[in-house]
């Protein structure tokens, strides 16, 4: 995905919010966007998501995209479940898979009881869970998150963290803004600084002191990986998975898959693109994985 000479202003005579932006966003990249309030961060995210069109320049190679806005349109005249089902259909799921996915995502975020509640009657926190859930349905190649963690409780924030890691490892692009400087610290491939109408790509800080700058997430792939995945109701492990992983029960119906690191991305992609897709609870290097514990974020 590439931005070439992209600029955006509102109205023919309005001031330029962004101008002459050039970016390359490769597959499997995690990008953090930073900048002062009013600098144009949300404008950049809306351009990336295709919500706004450039006033000048062009954006090419945009994959199927999911967008979680800073403000969720809670006044839409439908229930939480109906809204998620409709968004699932837009993401390319069948009607049955979209309906099933809506209920599954609400359950994962602890909001299953609100499936039949009108959006206008949801609390801010529950509305935010619905907003995040619609972005995670299906397998978008680009996930754009504009302060998506704001309003979520600790467990739901951790769940979203894990989903971001899994999507990036499976080859998706994820671009996010968050007010917490520690959000996914050391895991982004680059930081995009929005300032003075421009976007300056900066190297992401290293995970550990003394470590050379670069994407530590990819360095970790040199080690064996453990993926904890939850099957859809009634599903069995697909045959001929990449890397021929070792499979064992992980509790609560989940499966723990240990695979050589070079095959972990392909394995994640196979699970996420299965019909219906599997839910990825966690991805860790084998040495760091605790066989007797699953992260708090994985429990519904």
Task: Spell out the blueprint of helices and strands.
Elements (H helix, E strand, L loop, with lengths): L1 E8 L6 E9 L5 E5 L6 H9 L6 E5 L4 E4 L11 H11 L4 H14 L15 H13 L5 E5 L7 H16 L3 E5 L12 E6 L2 E6 L12 H5 L4 E6 L15 E6 L2 E6 L4 H9 L6 E7 L15
Parallel strand pairs: 3-7, 3-8, 5-6, 6-7
Antiparallel strand pairs: 1-2, 1-4, 8-9, 10-12, 10-13, 11-12
Describe the 3D structure.
Residues 1-221 form the ABC transporter domain. The chain is α/β, with parallel strands linked by helices and 300 residues long. Helices cover 26% and strands 26% of the residues. The strands form 3 sheets. Strands 5-6-7-3-8-9 form a 6-stranded mixed sheet, sandwiched between helices. The protein has a 4-stranded antiparallel sheet with strand order 11-12-10-13. The protein has a 3-stranded antiparallel sheet with strand order 2-1-4, covered by helices on one side. Strand 11 (246-251) and strand 12 form a beta hairpin. The longest helix is centred in the middle third of the chain and has 16 residues, at 154-169. The model is unreliable at 207-222 and 287-300 (pLDDT under 50).
């Amino acid at each position: 995905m590439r931005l070439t000479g992209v600029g955006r202003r509102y109205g023919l005579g309005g001031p330029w919010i962004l101008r002459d932006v050039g970016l390359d966003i490769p597959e499997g990249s995690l990008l953090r966007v930073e900048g002062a309030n009013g600098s144009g961060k949300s404008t950049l995210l809306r351009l990336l998501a295709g919500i706004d069109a450039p006033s000048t320049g062009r954006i090419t190679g945009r994959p199927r995209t999911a967008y979680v806005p800073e403000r969720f349109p809670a006044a839409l005249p439908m229930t939480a479940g109906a809204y998620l089902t409709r968004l699932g259909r837009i993401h390319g799921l069948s009607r049955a898979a979209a309906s099933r996915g809506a209920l599954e995502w609400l359950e994962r975020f602890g909001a299953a009881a609100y499936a039949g509640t009108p959006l206008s009657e949801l609390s801010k926190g529950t509305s935010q869970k619905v907003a995040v859930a619609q972005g995670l349905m299906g397998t978008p190649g680009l996930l754009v998150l504009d302060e998506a963690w704001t309003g979520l409780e600790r467990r739901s924030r951790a769940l979203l963290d894990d989903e971001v890691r899994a999507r990036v490892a499976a080859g998706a692009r994820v671009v996010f803004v968050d007010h917490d400087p520690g959000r996914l610290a050391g895991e982004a491939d680059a930081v995009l600084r929005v300032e003075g109408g421009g976007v300056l790509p900066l190297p992401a800080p290293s995970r550990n002191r003394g470590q050379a700058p670069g994407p530590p997430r990819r360095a970790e792939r040199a080690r064996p990986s453990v993926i904890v995945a939850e099957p859809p109701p009634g599903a069995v492990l697909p045959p001929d998975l990449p890397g021929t992983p070792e499979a064992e029960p992980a509790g609560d119906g989940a499966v723990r898959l240990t695979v050589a690191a070079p095959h972990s991305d392909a394995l994640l992609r196979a699970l996420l693109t299965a019909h219906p897709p599997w839910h990825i609870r966690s991805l860790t290097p084998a040495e760091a994985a605790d066989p007797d514990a699953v992260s708090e974020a994985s429990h519904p």
